[in-house]
Write a structure and sequence with these properties.
The chain has about 220 residues and is α/β, with parallel strands linked by helices. It is built from 7 helices and 7 strands. Helix 2 links the parallel strand 1 and strand 2. The longest helix has 20 residues.
């Protein structure tokens, strides 16, 4: 290999090694508090980078559902307590985003369920939300959750459930219900969760990251 080719390869390796990806928080309409849990994604990013060797930029960006920028992010997170309304433009863009390889995680922070199910149906009218079995890869690696989605916060005493939209056997949308993963990702003093509860939430978040970057 000559010097020119060696330098080219070295520069390429440096670029690949230094490459970092961005993830995003969805800013939606309807009045729901899309901005809830401000410390959750930064903490999840830090945990994932440290434990499963992802290379995600430390600060997530904010993106609107109809924005063409949506396609720049392999993972988009959505949370809140209340109403959600997707416009026709939002619906089309979100559908195209997920069909093109993007992944949307919706985490009900309690109070979103009755609204978000209607909006998911607008995006995928011919696909049903299916409960994801504990045998699915998202619960198996790198951390094993033999019982499926963990319970982080109690609200109505219901069991935590993970629902998904699958396209060609690929999970493109994850909806976590009666769980509050995002609360578990927040700074320790926000909800005063025990260390083991926060660790459980962060491990499940790392599994989600592992799934989207490897599938």
């Amino acid at each position: 290999m000559n010097i020119k080719n060696s330098l080219t390869l070295l520069l390429l390796l440096l670029v690949v090694d230094g490459f970092s990806q961005e993830i995003a928080l969805l800013k939606y309409s309807g009045g729901g508090d899309w901005y809830a849990n401000p410390t959750s994604l930064p903490n999840l990013i830090k945990y994932s980078n440290q434990t499963i060797n992802t290379k995600i930029k430390s600060k997530p960006v904010t993106v609107e559902p109809s924005s063409p920028d949506l396609f720049s992010y392999p993972f988009v997170h959505m949370t809140g307590h209340g109403n959600v309304v997707f416009s026709d433009a939002d619906v089309l863009n979100l559908r195209n985003y997920m069909l093109s390889g993007g992944f949307l995680h919706i985490d009900d922070n309690y109070g979103m369920d009755e609204y978000i199910r209607k909006e998911i149906k607008k995006i995928f009218p011919n696909n049903d939300l299916l409960e994801i079995p504990s045998s699915h890869a998202i619960f198996q690696k790198p951390f094993v959750f033999s019982g499926g989605l963990p319970k982080i916060h109690e609200h109505e005493g219901k069991r935590p459930q993970a629902f998904g939209i699958f396209v060609d056997n690929r999970l493109v949308l994850l909806y976590t219900f009666e769980c509050d993963l995002g609360d578990g990702w927040e700074d320790a003093d926000v909800h005063n969760d025990p260390k083991e509860v926060r660790e459980k939430a962060l491990r499940m978040g790392a599994n989600i990251m592992n799934y989207i970057f490897n599938n």
